[in-house]
Write a structure and sequence with these properties.
The protein is built from eight helices and six strands; from the N terminus they run αβααβαβαβααββα. The chain is of the alpha/beta class and 252 residues long. The chain has one domain: Undecaprenyl pyrophosphate synthetase, CATH 3.40.1180.10. The protein has a six-stranded parallel β-sheet, with helices on both faces. It starts with a helix and ends in a 19-residue tail after the last helix. The structure holds farnesyl diphosphate. The site of farnesyl diphosphate has 19 residues, from α2, α3, β2 and α4. Farnesyl diphosphate binds next to α2, α3, β2 and α4.
């Protein structure tokens, strides 16, 4: 079913972050192995990218593997790595042709060389595309991202490149993996869980949240449109107040 026109036009977010949760439960409830849930999760990801383009988003950030996910059984970790590799191998050309720019955020120092090479290949091939930026949070954890930024800034202060007084919000943001990417307007999490799980904690300071009761493999264009419609109905005040139009005075 096509979304109402207002979903596509009124108060559309520029950047949506997605916590793709519930693959395991989706599989379990059908008596299938967890890997099948992740496989179907990749299909949902393909649908989400196409819908994001159709809805005119500039950025879609997907949480594909967290630093905490390393604590899963080795077979599941290996399955997830395999799916990422296959996703890049199978989908990169198509993403390139669609005009998608791929950007990867997360730690890179502990990744196997073959994974690292694929991530870099995806970024290099698509770097000039402008239709949609697909930000893949892989091997990502927000606390580590912030700590790394703080360490880099501290090193610059110690080296005398900057002073402690130069350190402000903008500088910290410039040292995050997401430097140059606008903060997410909306974060969607599937599976009914209602938490951020170390995803874009700095960047989500003023994001709206929509928690969907469906598992990620069932996420489709209609679910995406429903989340955007909910976003469009929200009153974003960014810490200010919403006044009736006749009371709005612009300070000069
Ligand atoms: C959460 O479901 C999902 C993940 C940890 C991985 C997300 C991965 C995909 C959507 C597919 C892989 C895509 C790429 C590009 C690597 P869960 O396993 O935590 O589900 P559960 O909470 O029901 O167990």
């Amino acid at each position: 079913m096509a979304p109402k026109a207002d979903v596509l036009t009124a108060r559309a977010p520029r950047h949506v972050g997605v916590i793709m949760d519930g693959n395991g439960r989706w599989a379990l409830s059908r008596g299938l192995p967890r890997i099948e849930g992740h496989r179907r999760g990749v299909e949902a990801l393909r649908r989400a990218v196409r819908a994001a383009m159709e809805f005119g988003l500039d950025y879609l950030t997907v949480y594909s593997f967290s630093l905490e996910n390393w604590s899963r059984p080795v077979t599941e970790v290996s399955d997830l790595m395999g799916l990422l590799k296959r996703f890049i191998r199978d989908d990169l050309t198509e993403l390139y042709k669609l005009g998608v720019r791929v950007k990867v955020i997360g730690a890179r120092d502990n990744l196997k060389p073959d994974i690292l090479a694929l991530l870099e290949q995806a970024e290099t091939l698509t770097c000039a595309n402008t239709r949609l930026t697909l930000v893949v949070a892989f091997n990502y954890g927000s606390r580590q991202e912030i700590a790394t930024a703080a360490r880099q800034i501290a090193a610059k202060v110690a080296a005398g490149v900057i002073t402690a007084e130069d350190v402000d919000e903008a500088m910290l943001a410039q040292h995050l993996d997401t430097a140059g990417i606008p903060d997410p307007d909306l974060i969607i999490r599937t599976s009914g869980e209602q938490r951020l799980s170390n995803f874009l904690m700095w960047q989500a300071a003023y994001s709206e949240f929509v928690f969907l009761p469906i598992h990620w493999p069932d996420f489709d264009r209609q679910a995406f449109a429903a989340a955007l419609a909910e976003f469009a109905a929200r009153d974003r005040r960014f810490g200010g107040v919403t006044l009736p139009p006749e009371n709005v005075k612009v300070q000069r």
